[in-house]
Amino acid sequence: MTAVVHIQARLSSTRLPGKVLYPLGTRRVLGWVIERARRAERPTSTILTVGDRPENDAIREWCERNQVIFDTAPEDDLLERHYQAALTADSDPVVRVTGDCPFVPPSEIDRVIAEHEGNDARYTTNLTEEMPMGTAVDAIDRDILKELRELGDSHPVRRLRENPEEWDVVVTPSEQWTALGEAHTAVDTPADYWQLSDAIEAVGDEPRAVTEWVAER
Question: What does pTM read for this prediction?
Fold first, then answer.
């Protein structure tokens, strides 16, 4: 298996446009996500899946300036973006993380990959309502992306989540993190951004410390 972290990123967010390139502490939001992925031990590499709209040129320029591998595919077809990146990086499984989750724990990336390697699932995820928002990690077999693509889907996991038994899905929340399930550490809105900025100033940039601080608010 060649587990590669795919980080999906674009600038045309509705609620907070450009958020993945916002400064957050000592890095950009996207820089934190990449740093978490690189700290994980099981992935062999990291690749950004970037939409093909002109505004995303800023992300591509940032990647080139920071020696980050990226792949460009249709903005409105997230499945195609991940599938093309999987071919580029020879990913199998595809380990999906979103570019607005600067405090996704490296330990969760490793744990979900390990779970996926040890079970018979085609799709393994830690995403449940019990987990803090911003800690989601998916491990997806590449052949399932090909099947979904042939079915005309444009999202890599929506059909899998809606029909878990049909698609051999394993959902694996972490007891270490479910105790902090009320925390929200993704950057979705201006309020999220400022709260996470305050968190870094208050307790530093480690995912556990930030998540605990947010959970107490």
Answer: 0.96
